[in-house]
Amino acid sequence: MRFDAVVLAGGRSSRFGGVDKAQLILDGVAMLDRVLAATAGAEQTVVVGPERATARPVTWATEDPPLGGPVAGIAAAVPLGTAPIVVIVSCDLPWLEAENVEQLVTGLAEYDGFGLRDSSGRAQRLAAAYRRTALERALAELGETRDQSVRRLFAGLALGWSGPIRAGDDVDTWADLDDHSNPGPG
């Protein structure tokens, strides 16, 4: 199935003391490049955030206003693609692989969106595939996107979820990276 990818990489990384999470190296590869490898099957890949060197070509976008949050980033990126499915992922999913992205796309069967649960079972709305029409409708209904809640954006959509899986684990703190040595489920 045809899909576009939106990779959110514009946050402040405040829990990392301002260190750019997207550029953190894990097993010799930057976290952003790990996510870009997992989404390599996309027709169009849009990375939202400041331009950086990447392992493959991408289109860059900036949320309006800059640092306006992930919903503003999604709103800036979605119009830059045309595929019927949009895979939205954050750059801090270092264990995401192409097979997980395929699972997201194929999991859409009867849903507006299908996402991963992290290894603790928490739903990850920023590790999910969405039908473009449903996503565009949700953005239009929301209106103002600056500093809006991701949960609120997707509240009206029919969402399905995977079982708990390591690929859904994001890295929000240094401790999350330390957990890399303990692979956990998935």
Automatic annotation (TrEMBL):
Cross-referenced InterPro entries: MobA-like_NTP_Trfase, Molybde_CF_guanTrfase, Nucleotide-diphossugar_trans
GO molecular function, one term: nucleotidyltransferase activity
Keywords in alphabetical order: Cytoplasm, GTP-binding, Magnesium, Metal-binding, Molybdenum cofactor biosynthesis, Nucleotide-binding, Nucleotidyltransferase, Transferase
Ranges of residues in domain MobA-like NTP transferase: 5-155
Tree of life domain: Bacteria
Listed name of the protein: Molybdenum cofactor guanylyltransferase
Annotated source species: Kribbella deserti
